[in-house]
């Protein structure tokens, strides 16, 4: 084709969506105008989405899913473009988390989103906005996503959820004292649920700690594994068994070295009382 722009899917989430859209269109032998007619938009709009110049709206992606018969894959992929305050790979991870049979989390320094109270999440977000790290709109996305994830944990049957928190999650003040007390109380309530296990990795574990960065591992309904790991600047979603199994092994080692759930709850209560 004349003037057909080459796409680089590694450039951005928008570029990956655009390539996927073009591939689906090419497989059916449709022109941009023919696809546009089916979606109720213009060929120019299709071109802009395919080349990453215009982000797909949720409505556009849902319509494309119906036209191509792709379930909700495009709609889920489009969320990675709108949720720009999130690290690469995390929006896609969340879509899998909402269907997982087992969820394993390890966090350092901050409570994981699925355990955050609204006050804790708002305090964290407010500080990020003040620093200019995210926009107010992106902050709203973060808070909404945390709420959405928590709601998904109440599905029937509920997933098994294993959480290991570094002691720093308890010791780092976020918001005012009431905010922290409410957040710590949330942890105690979470530990009491029949489908959860909560453990604290204390500072005195020292070099026995097999993990130092946040790690999330999912076991899906078909028993396949998926992991999401992140650093300060990037996140990585991994579905390769050869890569995920060693992380799962390290997670089990972490659980073995961490405090028992009873001892962990006792530590949380000590922190709530202000005792060392």
How would you describe this structure in keywords?
276 residues; alpha/beta; 434 Repressor (Amino-terminal Domain); Endonuclease, Chain A; 2 domains; 12 helices; 12% strand; elongated
Briefly note the CATH topology name of the largest domain.
Endonuclease, Chain A
Number of domains: 2
CATH H-tier superfamily of the largest domain: Endonuclease Chain A
Question: Which architecture name of the largest domain does CATH use?
Answer: 2-Layer Sandwich
What is the element string, with H for helices and E for strands? HHHHHHEHHEHHEEEEHH
Q: What percentage of the residues does DSSP assign to strands (E)? A: 5-15%
Q: N- to C-terminal separation?
A: 70 Å
Q: Briefly, what CATH class of the largest domain?
A: Alpha Beta
Secondary structure: number of strands: 6
Mean pLDDT across all residues, rounded? 88
Largest sheet: 6 strands, mixed
- Per the principal axes of the C-alpha atoms, what is the gross shape? elongated
Number of helices: 12
- Strand order, main sheet: write it out: 3-2-1-4-5-6
Structural class, from secondary structure content? Answer: alpha/beta
Radius of gyration: 21 Å
Unreliable residue runs: none
Helix % is 40-55%
